[in-house]
Amino acid sequence: MTDIEKLSATETARLIREKQVSAAEVMQSTINRIEKINPKLNAFIFTSFDEAMENARQADKVLAQGDVLGPLHGVPIAMKDLFDFKPGWPSSLGGIPQLKNNIAEIKCGFVERMESAGAIFVGKTNSPAMGYRGTTDNVAFGPTSNPFDTSRNAGGSSGGSAAAVASGMVALAEGTDGGGSIRIPAAWTNTVGYRASAGRTPLLVRPNAFANTLPYIFEGTITRNVEDAILSLGILQGAHPGDPNCHQLVNDFSDAALRGIKGMKIGFSPNLDVFPVENEVSQVINEAIKVFETAGAHVEEIKIGLHRDQREYSDVWCRLFVPIMRHSFQAIKESGLDLLSKENRHGLSPDLLRWVEEVGPGYTADDLYKDLSIRSEVFDAYQATFSKYDLIISPTVTAMPVKNTNDGNTKGPSQINGIDIDPLIGWCPTFLTNFTGHPSVSVPAGLSASGLPVGLHIVGRRQADGDVLAASAVFERLRPWVQHYARISL
């Protein structure tokens, strides 16, 4: 069991089902790995080992009785500390100090469906306050380090989950994604971050059940291979009575890994038309895309049709999230805690506070509709492109992993190639498909000259998740990335 950290979730579940190893043995190995590695990465901010071990022993009893098993029976996994809930577990909404002891009373959709599939949660992973940036750092817990270089950040907002998976603490972890928060950290940690089509997987949000469309917000997974991403999507997809936006559409993606992409037309956008890209990123991506031609697809460089300055698009994303945050802050205030008050605001980043104050109550319905019109332009550009191409590929993010700071406020770069960008999200064009709802994944494209991971972004037509997964699987076969994990030394 010393190599448990090398196993995928699918492989682990198979070994447990075949009784080659017990769920309790797997769990003990997982706990040992977390205790050894986590102090160096700060990926987990909460663990519940006694509960997890008891659940593992119970999983072994169920197996011995011959009961029907879920596809992840006995497999240890992690959940994210943001808008993600499990009864009795703390929920700090991304490391807000005043909420460190805030105990959840409900289950989020991810926990509900993963536990029904037999998975066992071992703990919660780090994220930034309210998930409002592409890095993982906060006042309460500090930054999550990148397993490939612990002086650097793991990305965000699901950085704790990505670091936990890349380092072998767990094979599968939850990510949530409102602007790229599954795919951004996947790009920086050599992992697979899959985010489904809009409406395919549920998200349970209250008090406003419709908040997850402004822009689209998703629950999904970060894994080390495409097979686990396919398995996870099969578990998570399908309508839920608590989500008015999730439809009943359920597809079998189990054959996606074998489909191939011969004859597909793929549009390659080196910079999403308007985003400056660091040279290290471009060098890896330009080499990686040759794989698709080798697999029989036709690849050509394209313009998507985005005409505004990149800063205007990122500002729209930042503004659209402010009403969601303010609504959350108001709900918390009604329970007795005013996080925006002078004595409590130290738990929130200066950038988050600036946006909340700048947009504020003065953000009118007219302002909202202007921003939604810009969002619609992005949607129309993608739809027009997909009338000609099956897939769009590009860099996942435009910058290499940044150095951690010691102030709880690690951010991305504020400038690339001499061009000013928003350090919160402007180097993460992933948010464009949160505007549009197209299925998107980041797969490991390779390592830069400095030995740091670079992610390739693959986007498909709406509800064509199978195309995205098929292309991801082909890429993994022809340009595997599993060998890069051997470079992690913790």
UniProtKB/TrEMBL annotation:
<dbReference type="GO" id="GO:0003824">
    <property type="term" value="F:catalytic activity"/>
</dbReference>
<dbReference type="InterPro" id="IPR020556">
    <property type="entry name" value="Amidase_CS"/>
</dbReference>
<feature type="domain" description="Amidase">
    <location>
        <begin position="25"/>
        <end position="469"/>
    </location>
</feature>
<dbReference type="InterPro" id="IPR036928">
    <property type="entry name" value="AS_sf"/>
</dbReference>
<protein>
    <submittedName>
        <fullName>Amidase</fullName>
    </submittedName>
</protein>
<dbReference type="InterPro" id="IPR023631">
    <property type="entry name" value="Amidase_dom"/>
</dbReference>
<dbReference type="InterPro" id="IPR000120">
    <property type="entry name" value="Amidase"/>
</dbReference>
<comment type="similarity">
    <text>Belongs to the amidase family.</text>
</comment>
<dbReference type="Pfam" id="PF01425">
    <property type="entry name" value="Amidase"/>
</dbReference>
